[in-house]
Specification:
single chain; 6-stranded antiparallel beta sheet; alpha+beta; about 30% helix; Alpha-Beta Plaits; 7 helices; 12 strands; 6-stranded mixed beta sheet
């Protein structure tokens, strides 16, 4: 079995639904329904927010992590074309979508470095296209200016690096946990619990985590990690306070 990273960006315009994060989740579900891949997760990344960049709301591309059994070039190209067709059928008129597909194990340092660059500086589309061609990646402009290839490639690089972004979906059930979840259940689902309390206590096996009905593990060390802290009311997700003040356009629609 092989894991593929499918990066997408710039699929929406202001006032249009769905946002890129929601479209990425729907795309992963679609590819699973078509029996082309198993949806492992969807990771949202944050790139540079700068007036020189024509982003929609947050400049946040998404990467769909997929597992496949057929590793032939013909199959991966078929999957890529199916993903491209789906995005074109759902993206907003006037958007500038881009799509990138790569074998996770073959994403090199140059692509990872490109993701780092895009998170802290303005990078030209030509750099993305040149890098994609040089490393024989499936990278394609799907309309408009095609600037979405920048974020699509960056999302692939950052996900391969494994130390940035947060999961919008994970193994098909991230949004079904509810407002209070047993620590043991989260661990069973492959989510590492990391205490950020001052003393760094280990989260007890019998602990119950208050999520505020908003569970978004971070991508740390190549795995989903949920930051939690102990308060007077018990164990809580660290990100709980940000939900209403900083709700993401891309993931909430």
């Amino acid at each position: 079995m092989m894991e593929l990273l499918l990066g997408i960006d710039d699929t929406d315009v202001l006032g249009h639904k769905p946002g890129t994060g929601r479209l990425a989740r729907d795309l992963g579900a679609h590819l699973e329904e078509q029996r082309l891949a198993r949806l492992v997760g969807v990771v949202r990344h944050q790139l540079l927010v700068d007036p020189r960049i024509p982003y929609t709301s947050h400049n946040s591309p998404a990467c769909v992590v997929l597992a496949i059994d057929d590793c032939t070039d013909g199959f991966t190209r078929r999957l890529f074309q199916e993903a491209a067709s789906y995005i074109l059928s759902r993206c907003a008129r006037g958007s500038d979508p881009g799509l990138c597909l790569a074998d996770k194990t073959k994403v090199g340092e140059a692509v990872v470095h490109f993701g780092w660059r895009a998170s802290s500086e303005v990078v030209p589309k030509a750099d993305a296209l040149e890098l994609g061609q040089h490393h024989d990646l499936l990278l394609e402009e799907l309309g408009g200016t095609g600037d979405g290839v920048i974020g699509a490639l960056a999302a692939v690089g950052l996900t391969a690096d494994g130390n940035g972004g947060r999961f919008l979906e994970l193994n098909g059930g991230l949004r079904d946990f509810g407002e209070r979840v047993a620590a043991s259940l989260l661990r069973e689902r492959g989510i590492t619990l990391l205490s950020i309390s001052r003393n760094g206590e280990v989260v007890p096996t019998d602990a119950v985590i208050a999520t505020g009905d908003w569970l978004r593990p971070r991508l740390v060390g190549g795995r989903p990690v949920l930051f939690v802290e102990q308060t007077e009311d018990g164990w809580c997700c660290f990100d709980r306070k940000k939900r209403h003040a900083d709700a993401d356009h891309e993931e909430s629609m």
